[in-house]
Amino acid sequence: MADLRQILSQGRKRIGILIGAGAPTAIRVDDSNRIVEDEGHPLIPDVAGLTDAVVSDLREDDREIIETLKKEIIEPVNIETILTKVRKLAQAIGSSTVHDLDGSAYGTLGKRICEKIGSKVNACLPDAPNPYSELVSWISGTQRKHSVEIFTPNYDLLIEEAFERSRVAYFDGFTGSHKPFFDPASISSDELPVRWSRLWKLHGSLGWKIVGNIVIRTGQREATELIYPDHLKYDEVTRLPYSALFDRLRQFLMTPDTLLICTGFSFLDSHICAVLDEALAANAHTAIFAFQFQSLEQEKSAMRLASSRPNMSVYARDGAIISGVAGRWQPGQPLNEEWEDIRRTFWHDAPDNRSAEFLLGDFAKLAQFLALTQAQQMSSPVSDQNQDGTESDEHPICAEVPDAQS
Question: Are both 59 and 166 inside the same structural domain?
């Protein structure tokens, strides 16, 4: 952790962040979209929650068809594999019928599913400081040799809002002003200024739309049919954004001296995992740090990949896989007295060792850890106790930041 903190604070290494669907669930809000601590609901549900919410919001006849199709899906059943099945039928059967629907009816069903997905993931970023704003604070707070690249399969616009509220420049593959269009040639090069972060929406995004024979970004929050197509028979215009974006992920991982940090990602997406596995095997100078929310035993997909690729490490609540070897956490000696406070940003200590845990699998904790990498001194968190054993009233983790980074 000392080495990681140093790497993150210096700005010399090529760093990417893969933000999965679990990240927005770290933000809990009330019905007014205000951040709350213990109650409320996730800002955006994870994949399982999104699947349940979308299916339950469809018409009864649509739900009946989907329940029938679920039995025919070999992969893990979620809203994307359901949508893939529906789209395959829409293209394959034409005027024939399967489960009493023809190809046109399945096409219409696919559009209704997309609309429901859009309605569930179109949440706005809360006004108060939050993990996304802290992530952007870390990105913009250091002079860098290489741009930070963010890869995400999420459809939401949360990271875009965080960049724009902080007035931090970023590039997402679209160019133009009136109706920005997707420009694949600009994705393959690094000619933009280093201070511009890169944002790659691997599965598409709210507001993407096909107009004529180009893909444009509308600036709106509606979801169209342009959500990741997991099948082969798709026209070239629609396939283009995804092929270019996955090529960019592959190119990034094949670059020497590269670090990819994964957060909120379950490693259940076979397409992304295939690119990660290929790059880890081909490039020994690439490293992946996967910060996972659950216990090590529950993160089986991440464990399988890390067990066969020593340049991938998995950090879970109760243990880790490092250099292909699994083990339980055993905190070492702090480097100095200040590291007692720094450790509290990534480790929850407890008198009972069984309840002590590593914290950075939580996207909110990881974002805070990133934002504090420039801090020289930190006070104790709110949950710490005073010397007399009473709870402290101090504000959470205040940092003294060097003037150059203020």
Answer: no
Domain holding 71, by residue range, is 47-120
78/177 same-domain check: no
**Cβ 226 vs Cβ 215: under 8 Å:** yes
Are 8 and 67 contained in the same domain? Answer: no
* Count: domains in the chain: 2
pLDDT in tens, 131-170: 999 999 999 988 899 999 999 999 999 999 999 999 999 9
Task: Give the domain-ending residue among 328, 350, 374.
Answer: 328
Same domain, 31 and 111: no
In sign, the C-alpha dihedral spanning 140, 142, 147, 149 is negative
Q: Are residues 203 and 292 in the same domain?
A: yes
Helix (H, G, I), strand (E, B) or coil at 73: coil
Under 8 Å between Cβ of 50 and 117: yes
265 closest CA partner among 15, 16, 17, 19: 19
**Helix (H/G/I), strand (E/B), else coil: 368:** helix
Q: How far apart are CA 308 and CA 382, in angstroms?
A: 40
Alpha-carbon distance of 141 to 203, in angstroms, equals 29
Give the tens place of pLDDT for each residue, 306-352: 999 999 999 999 999 999 999 999 887 877 877 888 888 999 887 76
399-400/377-378 β-pairing:
antiparallel
Query: What whole-number distance in Å separates Cα of residue 382 and Cα of residue 45?
Result: 28
Residues 52 and 150 in one domain: no
pTM above threshold 0.70? yes
Eight-class DSSP state of 98? B
| Main-chain phi, psi angles of 129, to 5 degrees | -50, 140
Structure tokens at 107: 């096409």
